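WARN retry 2 of 3 for item q-0093 after timeout on previous attempt; input resubmitted unchanged.
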Amino acid sequence: RPKPQEKSPMSREMESVVTASGLWRGVVGCDEAGRGPLAGPVVGAACLLLPTHKVIKDIMDSKKLAEKKREELYTVLTAPESGVLWATTIVDNHRIDEINILNAALESMRLSAEKVARQLC
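OK item q-0093 returned
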């Protein structure tokens, strides 16, 4: 099985080609948290790195970062001058009961991505 690092160059290459075409302004990345617990909300998040974004060192899996480092990176990433557009969406337990946890996770990420897209306008 290939390591994630081995996949990155191809995805970066694809992103560069698509962005250079002028048809896209970037790639929105999405993720969710909360699918594992039996009760409670699911939170979706989305972000887009603008062409002007600053290179931010030490970005990696947040579970591998110390709490202090996560807080420092949060401050950097959410600063207006960071060149990062981001949004989050919380889907509550009532909605999860209506549409199931998988669809709630997908909905939270879709709504977050739509919020990021509106920031581009």
